[in-house]
Amino acid sequence: ELGLGDAAYPFWTGIFLPRQTPREIVDRLQNEALKAVADPGVQERFAKLGIDPFPLGLPEFERYFAEDFEATQKLAREAGVPKGN
Questions:
Q1: Are 4 and 75 within 8 A, CB to CB?
Q2: Residue 40 CB burial class (10 angstroms; 0-12, 13-18, ≥19)
Q3: Which of 18, 23, 56, 77 fits a disulfide with 61 by CB distance 3.0 to 4.6 angstroms?
């Protein structure tokens, strides 16, 4: 925002698991999370909170996360934010 015209920083939430997590557990957690987000009660609660969910499957989320991470790094470089240790 401060002179960085391409700055966009939407808030999002995702579920992260250790890399070694068995695929059947990853798949089950993903399916249960997608079902929860689709539940009418959850949808109603989200609406009251001003949350607009955009549930993604695993490949889409991986791509979204990688693109967001890259964009955030670029923005930090352009803003002159020093690298942490």
A1: yes
A2: exposed
A3: 56
Assigned token pair, 39: 């539940």
CA angle, corner 13, sides to 9 and 17, nearest 5? 130
What pLDDT does residue 85 have? 58
Retrieve residue 82's tokens: 């020093």
Residue type present at position 48 = K
Q: What is the pTM of this model?
A: 0.71
- Cβ atoms of 15 and 33 closer than 8 Å: yes
What does pLDDT average to in each consecutive run of 10 residues of the chain (85 residues)? 63 91 96 95 95 90 92 86 79
Helices (H), the chain: 23-38, 40-49, 58-79
Residue 55 has what DSSP assignment?
-
